[in-house]
Amino acid sequence: MSGTLVLVRHGQSEWNLKNLFTGWKDPDLTELGVEEAKTGAQALKETGLKFDVAFTSNLIRAQRTLDLIMDGIGQTDLPVIRDEALNERDYGDLAGLNKDDARKKWGEEQVHIWRRSYDVPPPGGESLKDTGARVWPYYMTEILPRVLRGETVLVAAHGNSLRSLLMILDRLDREQILSVNLATGVPMVYKLNADSTVASKEVLGDMSKAH
């Protein structure tokens, strides 16, 4: 058995609450987002996992979620590696817009295609495929080797950067990933085999709040 990989989507951000496209914009967590991170930390603490390293993006909502988790599990001295490879998908011209306003401007169907297709990017932004194109190499070169050495690795990132990873870990194709939504603040614990395949997966906490 190799190591353990834990993925956590950041808690609710101020722009999630306002129904805005966020992408590489940098709002902080809401009070609910802070509570979601603390709840995730408590669930992780109960597993007794001891982490060797943590990875997060260059965006404050993911970094703050990680800080709250590290504090909650009593591992504030954990080495942290930040990289924009783990950033949320770049929504380009949609970033900062209210989702309802975007639908009025471009039409419901077009906005749905940008949000939920695999390889159609919004104007000036990234598709899920584009996001994966930066997440996958980073995972293969920086994160996976540590897990295969037997380390326990924590990744606090974003809905779409983590969905890219789920395509590899859960062996999801470009159609299957479109229906996957990740709950905020809910840790997913993967134990990997020596060949990098998944030996087991456990979702900590209530998935009924996935959205």
From TrEMBL:
SMART domains: PGAM (SM00855). Pathway: Carbohydrate degradation; glycolysis; pyruvate from D-glyceraldehyde 3-phosphate: step 3/5. It comes from the Bacteria. Pfam families: His_Phos_1. Substrate binds at residues 9-16, 22-23, 61, 88-91, 99, 115-116, 159-160. The active site is at residues 10, 88. It is an enzyme of class 5 (isomerase). One of its GO terms (biological process) is gluconeogenesis. The record marks 158 as: Transition state stabilizer. One of its GO terms (molecular function) is phosphoglycerate mutase activity. Its EC number is 5.4.2.11. Catalyzes the interconversion of 2-phosphoglycerate and 3-phosphoglycerate. Belongs to the phosphoglycerate mutase family. BPG-dependent PGAM subfamily. This is 2,3-bisphosphoglycerate-dependent phosphoglycerate mutase.
